[in-house]
Design goal:
The protein is an alpha+beta fold. 20% of the residues lie in helices and 19% in strands.
Length: 69
């Protein structure tokens, strides 16, 4: 999967992300499947799309939610 496979409006980021585009990733929930969740670096929108398993994505989101200050 590449950035060309996913329309720009399909990407979303956390509501806790900094408005200055700092350290953030985005994901494309409409393109997530039972096997892959696409994510990308918000600062490099034309860069690579990485896919992780839904289980790994859920673990990451849970960790991030517990770690926020």
């Amino acid at each position: 999967m590449t950035h060309a496979d996913i329309p720009e409006q399909s990407w979303t980021s956390s509501s806790f992300s900094q408005s200055n585009g700092g350290e953030c990733i985005e994901w494309a929930p409409d393109f997530a499947t039972a096997h892959a969740v696409p994510i990308r670096d918000s600062k490099n929108k034309r860069g690579p799309v990485v896919t992780v398993t839904p289980k790994a994505w859920a673990a990451f989101v849970g960790f991030a939610a517990e770690s926020r200050v």
